[in-house]
Structure formats: structure tokens, C-alpha cells
């Protein structure tokens, strides 16, 4: 009897895991272990960039594991798994919010484990509730049950210790679950089910507010800091990939302007790797005050010498940096201004302002670029042979494999799809496909000159003035 799909997936998984093992050895990384209570370099994408082959092997392993699970698991189990995964998320939230995680990491022998009853009495909780919550976290790989009803942190949960990136990636924002809860009725039954307005979404229903998401955050300072922290980590996760995988040496302009650059983490990382550039961080007035003080403290010499400038600029006003010297970065900016109002009114206004600043260079030999750093929605079709998907393969050799993994790595890109639904529910937005990016970019008198896949969930969409498009 032929088990063709199972056989091919197994072969593919073996190939991916063999490559993973070999590349980890080549990179002199320690073995991965769930019993370890020490963080592994691969656990923190904000500080460690794996080799391209290792990144690909990890992504392919995850894709195969997801496909194998889909193949082998019963649909009824799968459905229940999916539905109850919300409890898994809530359970780990409890360990973070109570600071149980910090307490467990401070134990004199953290890998030995601590009885749940002791944790319950220390934190004034009911052990009858805490044990199933901890077991749920153990089943999801966040903690280990070292003996009956005793639990220890594992390597993965160390990311939730205070100050670590997982703690700041604040997916447990108050109200998150209520937004998820109203999503089906918003889409199927509400008066707004056919509306594409950012003011008529699941967010307004869940939060009982007429305000759009960002206006609401601005008026609720308690939500602003966790969101800023979350966005910061989200950005930091792609910084090493942007610095290493975009060909900065080919950029002809001496000055990089990071529009809506927040605290300036991206440009400082670029300057560290490519000290011949100068950089400008632009943002709104209140953010610029903070960014200026951070930069004066961390990079006093760059600020004094003018290598690094921080300035107030509203994305919706004309770009003041006009001239042959400038290229521009927009990371996680245009996704905030989604396609809720065809044809992408706000995103087009922002891009148009920068495109007009590129204007005087039309007859110059120097090519200014606009680098859009965003997730790109790729259809998860059954084969790897689609043009847009090929653009996202880091290692072209993978295409020769006879594997059944969807074009955008199936479950390895689940995050992009879930994020799209999140943007939809919050603001009637959605991650754009490459075609949609092209249409937005071309509408502003620009063209996509290249798309650089990164060792991250995002890509760099490189644009320039002109008419000849990539696609
Ligand atoms: C999602 S964060 C991205 C920050 C940064 N680009 C990064 O990737 O780390 C969005 C940034 O855009 C800034 N922003 C939002 N609206 C803006 C506007 N109208 N003018 C200038 N900056 C704006 C915010 O202050 C924030 O720093």
C-alpha cells in the first residue's frame, strides 16, 4: 500500500531536521533541550540571527510538523485543540501576571521544580485551580512537571521573565480575548458586517467605543505603554535580519531616514553594521522627545557629530528631507494604515509624501530608495511553484525537493495569517499581498525594484521612482 503523502512528508522532515542539526553544529550552537532551564540563542530573534540554512531548516521543520499533524490528527481532536487553545494562552498569561514565572526563575534550584501547592500558598491562589493551569502550560511546552504536581520553568518560559522579550511582547493586552470573542458575530450578523470602515469593527463592539483603535489607545494611557513595548519587540525581532539580509552596500544615498522610526533601534543597528551611513529618525513630537534622550544617552558622539539626528515629522505632511542624499525606511507603518478605504487612502498619502521628496532625483544617477518593511501575505497554495511564493524562499535549492509543504510554509507562516485576521478585527485591515503592495506603490508613481526575504517574518519591499515594475 502506498502512503505517498506520509512518506514524502516524513522524508522532508528528516531532511529538515538533519540540516537543522548540521547547521547548529556548524554554528557551534548547543543542542536544543526542553529539559534545560537555560535560554538557547535560537530562542531570541532580537539578539541572534541564525545562518540562512539554519533559518530555512527550522522553518521547513515547523512546516512539515504542521502538515504531519494535519495529516495524522483526527479532525475532531484538531477542532477541540484549536478551540481550547485560548485556555492555553490564558493559562500562561496567569503565570506571567502573577509573577509566578519570576518566582520560579529565582528558586535556588529552578530545574528541580516546586510543588503547585507551595506556589498557590505563596501567591494566595487555590491549588485546585493552579494545578490544571500549570498542566495546561506543561502540555504546551512552557513548563515541565518534574514530579506529580511539581513544576519547573523550562528553557522556553524564560522568555517571560521580567525584562526578557517574551514578557514585553504583550499579547495579553486587556480586552484581547473579548475582541476575539466578538469577531464571529461582527463578521456574520452585525449591522457592520459589510462595512469596511475602521470605525465599524469588532474592536468598537468589544470595547463599546466609537473610537478607532489608535485614537482609543491615545486616550487610554494604561494601554499605550504595553502597546509601545509590544511594537518595539515586534520591530526588534526583524532588526538583525534587516541589517544582514538587505544589501546596504548597494544603497547609493549616504543618509537613511527612518520615518515613524520610534525609538530608533533600527537605524542604530544599521549604523553599527554600516558606519559610513548617516541617519535620521522622524516621529511624532511626543515620541521624538523620548527618542532624543535615548540617543543622547546611548550614542552621544553620533548625536554630536550629526551622524544621527532625531526630528519631529508628521507622516501626513510633506517630507522635508528632499535631495539626492536620502533613502527612506517605513517599518510597520503602512500596515497601520490598512486597505480599509480603497485605494488605501492613508497609506498612499504617506508614500506619496515620500515619493514627492524623491522627485528632484529623477534625472540624477543616484537612486534613492524607499524600503517598506512589512509582512507580505502569500497564498498557502499546494505547490511551491508560484512566482510570488518563490520570492520568499531564502534558499532556492529547497525548490528541488519533492515535498508537500504549501508555498508559504503552511503552519510556519500561521502567524502572518492570524495577524491578518487580528488587523481585520481591530481596524478592518489585512496584511497586503505582493500584488496589493504593487498596486499601492505604483499608484504613488513608484515601482517595486526588488523584494528581499529576511530571516524574519517580514520582508523588505524596495521601491524607487519610475515606471518599470518588478512583477
Ligand atoms: C508600529 S510603530 C513602528 C515604529 C518603528 N518604525 C519600528 O519599526 O520599530 C509606529 C510608529 O509610527 C509613529 N507614527 C504614527 N503616526 C505617525 C504620524 N502621523 N507621523 C509620524 N509618526 C507616526 C508612532 O509614533 C510609532 O513610533
Automatic annotation (TrEMBL):
User: Which InterPro entries does the record associate with it?
Assistant: COMT-like, COMT_C, SAM-dependent_MTases_sf, WH-like_DNA-bd_sf, WH_DNA-bd_sf
O-methyltransferase C-terminal domain location, by residue? 254-387
Lineage top rank: taxon: Eukaryota
Q: Which UniProt keywords apply?
A: Methyltransferase, S-adenosyl-L-methionine, Transferase
Task: Enumerate the Pfam families for this protein.
Answer: Methyltransf_2 (PF00891)
Q: Which Gene3D superfamilies match?
A: Vaccinia Virus protein VP39, Winged helix-like DNA-binding domain superfamily/Winged helix DNA-binding domain
What processes does the entry annotate via GO biological process terms?
A: methylation
Signal peptide region: none
The molecular function terms in GO held by this entry are: O-methyltransferase activity
- PANTHER family xrefs: O-METHYLTRANSFERASE CICE, PUTATIVE (AFU_ORTHOLOGUE AFUA_4G14580)-RELATED
Q: What is this protein called?
A: O-methyltransferase-domain-containing protein
Amino acid at each position: 500500500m502506498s502512503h505517498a503523502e506520509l512518506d514524502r512528508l516524513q522524508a522532508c522532515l528528516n531532511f529538515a531536521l538533519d540540516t537543522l542539526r548540521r547547521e547548529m553544529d556548524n554554528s557551534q550552537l548547543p543542542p536544543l533541550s526542553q529539559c534545560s532551564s537555560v535560554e538557547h540563542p535560537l530562542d531570541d530573534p532580537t539578539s541572534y540571527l541564525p545562518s540562512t540554512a539554519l533559518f530555512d531548516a527550522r522553518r521547513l521543520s515547523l512546516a512539515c510538523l504542521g502538515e504531519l499533524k494535519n495529516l495524522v490528527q483526527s479532525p475532531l481532536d484538531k477542532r477541540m485543540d484549536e478551540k481550547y487553545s485560548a485556555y492555553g494562552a490564558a493559562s500562561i498569561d496567569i503565570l506571567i501576571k502573577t509573577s509566578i514565572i519570576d518566582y520560579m526563575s529565582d528558586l535556588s534550584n529552578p530545574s528541580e521544580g516546586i510543588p503547585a501547592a507551595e506556589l498557590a500558598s505563596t501567591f494566595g491562589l487555590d491549588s485546585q485551580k493552579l494545578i490544571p493551569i500549570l498542566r495546561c502550560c506543561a502540555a504546551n511546552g512552557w513548563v515541565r512537571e518534574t514530579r506529580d504536581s511539581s513544576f519547573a520553568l523550562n528553557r522556553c518560559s524564560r522568555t517571560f521573565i521580567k525584562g526578557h522579550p517574551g514578557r514585553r511582547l504583550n499579547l495579553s493586552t486587556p480586552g484581547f480575548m473579548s475582541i476575539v470573542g466578538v469577531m464571529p458575530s461582527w463578521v456574520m450578523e452585525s449591522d457592520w458586517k459589510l462595512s469596511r470602515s475602521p470605525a465599524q469593527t469588532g474592536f468598537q463592539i468589544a470595547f463599546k467605543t466609537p473610537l478607532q483603535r489608535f485614537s482609543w489607545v491615545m486616550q487610554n494611557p494604561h494601554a499605550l505603554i504595553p502597546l509601545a513595548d509590544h511594537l518595539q519587540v515586534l520591530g526588534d525581532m526583524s532588526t538583525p535580519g534587516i541589517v544582514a539580509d538587505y544589501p546596504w552596500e548597494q544603497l547609493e544615498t549616504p543618509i537613511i531616514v527612518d520615518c515613524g522610526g520610534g525609538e530608533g533601534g533600527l537605524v542604530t543597528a544599521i549604523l553599527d553594521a554600516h558606519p559610513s551611513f548617516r541617519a535620521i529618525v522622524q516621529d511624532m513630537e511626543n515620541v521624538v522627545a523620548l527618542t532624543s534622550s535615548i540617543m543622547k544617552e546611548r550614542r552621544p558622539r553620533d548625536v554630536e557629530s550629526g551622524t544621527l539626528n532625531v526630528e519631529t515629522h508628521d507622516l501626513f505632511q510633506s517630507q522635508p528631507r528632499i535631495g539626492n542624499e536620502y533613502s527612506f525606511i517605513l517599518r510597520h507603518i503602512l500596515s497601520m494604515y490598512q486597505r480599509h478605504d480603497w485605494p488605501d487612502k492613508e497609506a498612499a498619502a504617506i508614500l506619496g509624501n515620500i515619493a514627492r521628496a524623491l522627485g528632484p532625483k529623477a534625472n540624477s544617477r543616484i537612486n534613492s530608495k524607499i524600503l517598506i518593511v512589512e509582512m507580505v501575505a502569500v497564498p498557502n497554495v499546494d505547490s511551491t511553484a508560484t512566482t510570488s511564493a518563490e520570492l520568499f524562499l531564502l534558499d532556492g535549492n529547497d525548490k528541488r525537493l519533492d515535498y508537500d509543504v504549501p508555498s508559504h510554509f503552511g503552519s510556519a507562516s500561521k502567524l502572518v495569517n492570524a495577524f491578518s485576521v487580528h488587523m481585520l478585527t481591530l481596524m478592518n485591515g489585512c496584511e497586503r499581498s505582493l500584488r496589493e503592495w504593487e498596486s499601492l506603490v505604483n499608484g504613488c508613481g513608484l515601482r517595486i525594484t526588488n523584494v528581499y526575504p529576511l530571516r524574519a517574518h517580514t520582508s523588505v519591499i524596495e521601491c524607487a521612482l519610475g515606471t518599470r515594475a518588478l512583477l
